[in-house]
Amino acid sequence: MKISVVGTGYVGLVSGTCFAETGVNVACVDIDQKKIDNLNNGIIPIYEPGLEDIYKKNVEKGRLEFTTNLAESIKDADSVFIAVGTPPDEDGSADLKYVLGVAREIGKSMDHYLVVVTKSTVPVGTSMKVKQAISEELEKRGENIPFDVASNPEFLKEGSAVADFLKPDRIVIGTESKQAQKVMKRLYKPFLLNGHPILFMDITSSEMTKYAANSMLATKISFINDIANLCEIVGADVDNVRKGIGSDARIGNKFIYPGTGYGGSCFPKDVQALIRTADEHNYSLEILKAVESVNYRQKEVLFTKLNKRFNGDLKGKKFAMWGLAFKPKTDDMREAPSLVIIERLLNAGASVVAYDPVAMEEANRILGDKISYAKDEYEALIDADALILVTEWSEFRLPNFRVLEKLLNNKIIFDGRNIYDPEELEELGFEYYAIGRSKN
């Protein structure tokens, strides 16, 4: 079986590589010649655990190739996946120019039956726009080549995307024909053999499922953050509350860890896009609007605590920051809380020395010399007035607090992920500020 995957970003590269791992011949396509040259020379553009190993293996076996030639990539292909970006417009809606641009190129080039699959996260109704764009190009050519469209949303978590793809909770596919369903079922047969469920449905429901899933998870995060803030006010400990509600099977214990708000490439964009879709249909998603509002506010929480502790006088002070990526096991800094905190600190006249195990290069690309970068977590602490922990990388979980005591100017920690034990730090003489704990 042969497929083409258009777009070599996070979704496209992971999807194409993992399909190749199941024995499919995959051509990954991108208009960025430099990116394709790098991929053909063993350089992958993203950090994702486990990806590099299977990428190298499948390139060596000849099942995975990279090209800028879309027309060549779909020759003899059974299906073509559209996995290009859908960045948000100023009004929060998803920008579909790249998706529809690929659809038109497919219409200009295809010469046999294809299943054209939207893998990008797209608003409800996009697959029909893809179908229309392809049909218009075929009509211009005077051709009547049959094709089908399908929707196959991804549910990958950054930091565990390879495992998520190869061992999915579920596979959601929206189709409108038996022939398309047959092609997709054959493509995903290796996953069915391992017992992973495949859910076929109509295309509209498939597109909605992706947005609804991410919005539900974002809702859980904003809910527990709101509860955490109230816990501080009334004298409760959100860690106890989290355990108390998480043991209820109806609620579950995932995505109810308080922190500095959600970020990344999915949740912020998808919540905004779903709100916009509802607005376009004269319906207001009040819960999701509140979710978004709470998340914006939550990104300010650590700075607010820090500013209060230093009586609003941060000018000339130096702060160490551990963690820059929006979550561990990725270098992704899109919508990262660290960026908001850094901006507030710099505007207040403070300086920041940061360390992240993976995201230093990405941070430098975004921030340049606005902040300083340490070679390790301890170097960041030297002469700093406090430590700010933003991302809960595993190597930050058990630091040598005696070393912290010697390197920091003040024994003060602002923990944005509640990974430290307040009693232990109190015994060691540290001032400890966390999220939703009553001693704050």
From TrEMBL:
Signal peptide: none annotated. SMART domains: UDPG_MGDP_dh_C. It catalyses: UDP-alpha-D-glucose + 2 NAD(+) + H2O = UDP-alpha-D-glucuronate + 2 NADH + 3 H(+). Its EC number is 1.1.1.22. Residues 320-422 form the UDP-glucose/GDP-mannose dehydrogenase C-terminal domain. Pathway: Nucleotide-sugar biosynthesis; UDP-alpha-D-glucuronate biosynthesis; UDP-alpha-D-glucuronate from UDP-alpha-D-glucose: step 1/1. Pfam families: UDPG_MGDP_dh (PF00984), UDPG_MGDP_dh_C (PF03720), UDPG_MGDP_dh_N (PF03721). NAD(+) binds at residues 30, 35, 86, 121, 158, 269, 334. GO terms for molecular function: NAD binding; UDP-glucose 6-dehydrogenase activity. It comes from the Bacteria. GO terms for biological process: polysaccharide biosynthetic process; UDP-glucuronate biosynthetic process. The active site is at residue 266. Keywords: NAD, Oxidoreductase. The keyword Cell inner membrane does not apply. Substrate binds at residues 155-158, 210, 255-259, 263, 327. NCBIfam families: NDP-sugDHase (TIGR03026). Belongs to the UDP-glucose/GDP-mannose dehydrogenase family. This is UDP-glucose 6-dehydrogenase. It comes from Draconibacterium orientale.
